[in-house]
Fold this protein.
Amino acid sequence: MNAVIQHYENYKREIGVMKNAMREQAGVDPVADTPSQRRRYNPQTGKIE
């Protein structure tokens, strides 16, 4: 049973990493949780403006 839980935790972590990678490619802040924050994120400088 513990192996199943471990597998699920790894799966969740991989999904999070993939989502962050896709967001970075799209030029949005990986940790932004509101659309306005995402829009003001500048991938060149690496910060929210």
